[in-house]
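Anyone opening a protein record will find just a pair of labelled lines. A complete record is shown below as an example:
=====
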Amino acid sequence: MRIFRFSGSAEIKKIMREIGVDAYGAKIMLPKAQNLLIRLSAVNNTTANILKQEMLSLGADAAIARGALTGKTKKTDILLMGQLAQFSALANKLKIQPFGLRQLAVELDENIRNFNRNDFKLSLSRGALSFNQKIKVMGIINLTPDSFSNDGLYRAFSHNYPDLALRKAQSMVADGADIIDLGGQSSRPGAKNISIKEELRRTVPVVKRLAKVIKVPISIDTTKPEVARAALETGAQIVNDIAGLRDKRMVRLVARYKAAVVIMHMPGRPVNMQKIIAYKSLIDDITIYLKKAIDFAQSGGIKPDKIIIDPGIGFGKTPAHNFAIINQLQDFKVLGKPILIGPSRKSFIAQALGGSSSPKQGRTSGTIAACVLAALHGANIVRVHDVKEVNQALKIVEAVENVMA
């Protein structure tokens, strides 16, 4: 006898093949073997009680607040518990119900479809980036004199830093980088904004130099539309906006250049983000923020297949928040976008390792562990300094997952 705890449909399919289950029968039974927990927030009592009865009628269940049953509260959160097949049946039943349940049925179908999706294809201005079993690696090149990881290439009196950046980029690509991310503005906690002129001076010559040589997409890490425009005009294809695409000018710019964009969650700005940490529900709050940003981007003309999301590890988060995000990363899959995560060399890793180790020398092993866990929990892209080491670790993850394919 064996007892299984499956992490995905591939494992279930493999067991059914080993047993010799008919292919059509396996397709019918697969949803019955996939269990889901779905939480709904602030649902009125009438709707909550209808949902509970409908779930019970399907052989599933729903947990609601005691006050929702006794009438002491007006609203309740709900935890729906059932199989994928039962949720499909629930959505069909809700489509003929009043009290806003028709819309809930649409959202339920969409979110479950997104949650199970792994076939992303990021459309770029030149070509596309496909996501399948391989986790993409984004290599970081800091063009700053004050990078938190002490790896900034830019120096005020260095005339050959574009060549240094090119050599570093070529090394990263050889080590397995799928994207190169260039940034001229430090985003470390407490960092102050530099001028547009200075950020352009740091980044544009490097983008221009790299675009002529390297074959992988170039990403520009900036919150300034002026810098993004110059980078896109000289060869960048992705805008990595840590400000979460709040600026309408940035939205219009990305749409006009048909670029891809990374939308990150960050409360406030780098200069004050660690002073305003307050969440009612960490994952829910980040999800709501990113959903609004996605809607804002798409309403401004950015195509759905050009958006990547980033929950913002280390940006307005405590160490506990950062580890919770890694552990619950798959929760963001309901948004239906590729997920990027950037734990590389950050201070929460040093704290977990028991010391304030040097970012450049002492945090590689912790970064590797964080990236492996992120990959297992739903990450599509990891943004790192140590490309070779992380890429090697991810190959082991892929080898394990391919056994179940």
Observations:
- The longest helix spans residues 282-299.
- The domain at 121-403 is CATH 3.20.20.20 (TIM Barrel).
